[in-house]
Design brief:
The complex is a heterodimer of chains A (112) and B (114). With 112 residues, chain A is an all-beta fold. Chain A has strands spanning 5-7, 10-13, 19-24, 31-37, 44-50, 53-57, 64-68, 74-78, 87-94, 102-103, 107-111.
């Protein structure tokens, strides 16, 4: 049974560019949440997708957007990248919006 | 507002020592869930335990044990007879009963040496 998978593993972008990160949830899960973890910090909630809609959002600017597909996989898009967007981006999936979340290995984004 | 405080930034112990990781939380919700996650160097967060706000029973799982005390808003985690493989960053997290957002503490880095 495959767990949560994320791609790519690592990514290097230049300030001002746009990036798309991808997540496939654990088998049977229909809800995907995204978190940003800066170096030395705990993960910060970005948003959650359920039934292809954004259900809850953390304190992140509109430059951060997402999408969920009919197969429950999800994308996180970040526009106009800033140096401060450098972080580990974690995807978590769950059976429903308010239950146990299982995390993927993350995508490490470096903005230069 | 939800808040989780892990005052211990880094702890170093010698293998076989017992170690306790502290977690203090703040919430106005009457129903909430508390979690502990382990993050090894690979980066993936590994779920360890979930407790709901109505269950204050302590729990033991092998060398791991958890002490939940609502009176002091604490949810501490003890590793007995620590091993090198326990070296990781440990996060305490809080979630409201009806919402999805997990609020994490800043983590405690545990280093276990031989």
């Amino acid at each position: 049974d495959a767990g949560v998978t994320q791609s790519p593993t690592h990514l290097i972008k230049t300030r001002g560019q746009q990036v798309t990160l991808r997540c496939s949830p654990k088998s049977g899960h229909d809800t995907v949440s995204w978190y940003q973890q800066a170096l030395g910090q705990g993960p910060q909630f970005i948003f959650q997708y359920y039934e292809e809609e954004e259900r809850q959002r953390g304190n992140f600017p509109d430059r951060f957007s997402g999408h969920q597909f009919p197969n429950y996989s999800s994308e996180l898009n970040v526009n106009a990248l800033l140096l401060g967007d450098s972080a580990l981006y974690l995807c978590a999936s769950s059976l429903a919006p308010a239950v146990e979340q299982y995390f993927g290995p993350g995508t490490r984004l470096t903005v230069t | 507002a939800q808040k989780v405080t892990q005052a211990q930034t880094e702890i170093s112990v010698v293998e076989k020592e017992d170690v306790t990781l502290d977690c203090v939380y703040e919430t106005r919700d009457t129903t909430y869930y508390l979690f502990w996650y382990k993050q090894p160097p690979s980066g993936e967060l590994v779920f360890l335990i979930r407790r709901n706000s109505f269950d204050e029973q302590n729990e033991i799982s092998g060398r791991y044990s958890w002490n939940f005390q609502k009176s002091t808003s604490s949810f501490n985690f003890t590793i007995t007879a620590s091993q090198v493989v326990d070296s990781a960053v440990y996060f305490c997290a809080l979630r409201p009963g009806t919402a999805s957002k997990l609020t994490f503490g800043t983590g405690t880095r545990l280093q276990v040496t031989l």
